[in-house]
Specification:
CATH topology of the largest domain: D-amino Acid Aminotransferase, Chain A, domain 1
CATH superfamily of the largest domain: DNA ligase/mRNA capping enzyme
Number of strands: 17
Cofactor: a divalent metal cation
Number of helices: 8
Keywords: DNA damage, DNA repair, DNA replication, Ligase
CATH class of the largest domain: Alpha Beta
Pfam families: DNA_ligase_A_M, DNA_ligase_OB_2
Shape: globular
Structural class: alpha+beta
Number of domains: 2
Radius of gyration: 22 Å
CATH architecture of the largest domain: 2-Layer Sandwich
Organism: marine metagenome
GO molecular function, one term: ATP binding
Largest sheet: 5 strands, mixed
Strand order of the largest sheet: 1-10-9-2-8
Strand content: 25-35%
Length: 301
């Protein structure tokens, strides 16, 4: 059987979302997860690009014909952790090991029903009776922009990266949904993007004398001669895949990740990286870019 594409979330402005509420009155909302997309087709767990999930342990659990049609996100560990994407990618894209994971199911693409009908089918699944690693992602009803903003604030405070909205009457689309369709809409103040690594800058220790500035705050000058290399990553020099703009990513790394990326710096040139940046007020380079993880080609489409 020919594999079918997953439905991907479209972008929408607040104005477009407000028009959706005027049209459909009620939308279903859920937290936006930041893991690895997974669909079960013909008894095989496939990634977003329709390649088999690489980890053999996860594949052995999810590759079951009784799970056919389930669509969701694989998360390794806490779904609200700051480094959830990096940890999940490392575990899911490694063939060996038995990682802790949950398959958060939010749709079923085999049922030719509007989303409310597909959700009804999911809610009647007893995930604990199927497998403890499978859970159904619940939704809440949202009726206007004020409720959406309150729910978004709640999700962000918990540590999720945003909100997913769905028209209860929306059909499953094998491709990217649009703001007008409302079948699958992401609400995020930070936007995920992909970039190509062009180079790396070493982190430096500033040994310039600390002086008090006019505001009474401690400040060091930026004279290069008094800066000492620290032997670890300072920033990734990248080019955004969509805009072609060159910029640096200097945050989002823990010390271990900085050391690892610096150690293998020569082999990472040309590799893809996933990052997030604040989407409000962006004119040229991404605003406040934050490293999320290396982008594996099996999670790209």
């Amino acid at each position: 059987m020919k594999h079918v594409k997953p439905m991907l979330a479209g972008k929408a402005t607040d104005e477009q979302i407000s028009k959706l509420f005027d049209k459909v009155k009620e939308m279903y909302a859920s937290p936006k997860l930041d893991g690895i997309r997974c669909m079960i087709q013909d008894g095989v767990a496939l990634s977003r690009s329709l390649k088999p999930i690489r980890n053999e342990f996860i594949q052995s659990i999810l590759s079951n014909p009784m799970f056919d049609g389930l669509d969701g996100e694989i998360i390794s560990g806490d779904p609200t952790a700051d480094d959830v994407y990096r940890i999940t990618t490392g575990n899911v894209m490694r063939s060996t090991g038995k990682p802790d994971f949950t398959f958060w199911v939010f749709d079923s693409f085999l049922h030719p029903y509007p989303y409310m009908g597909r959700q009804h089918e999911l809610y009647h699944i007893d995930p604990t009776g199927i497998h403890p690693n499978i859970k159904i992602l619940k939704t809440v009803s949202i009726f206007n922009m004020e409720e959406l903003q309150a729910y978004e604030k709640y999700c962000l405070e918990l540590g999720y990266e945003g909100v997913i909205l769905r028209d209860p009457n929306g059909m499953y689309k094998h491709g990217r949904s649009t703001a007008k369709e409302g079948g699958l809409i992401k609400v995020k103040r930070f936007e995920d993007s992909e970039a190509t690594i062009l180079g790396m800058e070493e982190q430096m220790k500033n040994n310039n004398e600390k002086k008090v500035n006019e505001l009474g705050r401690g400040q060091r000058s930026s004279h290069k001669e008094n800066k000492i290399p620290k032997g670890t990553l300072g920033a990734l020099v990248c080019k955004d895949k969509t805009t072609g703009i060159q910029f640096n990513i200097g945050s989002g790394f823990d010390d271990a990740t900085r050391d690892q990326l610096w150690k293998y710096k020569d082999g990472l040139i040309g590799q893809a990286v996933k990052y997030k940046s604040f989407k409000i007020g962006v004119k040229d380079a991404p605003r406040h870019p934050v490293y999320l993880g290396m982008r594996d080609d099996s999670d790209m489409s």
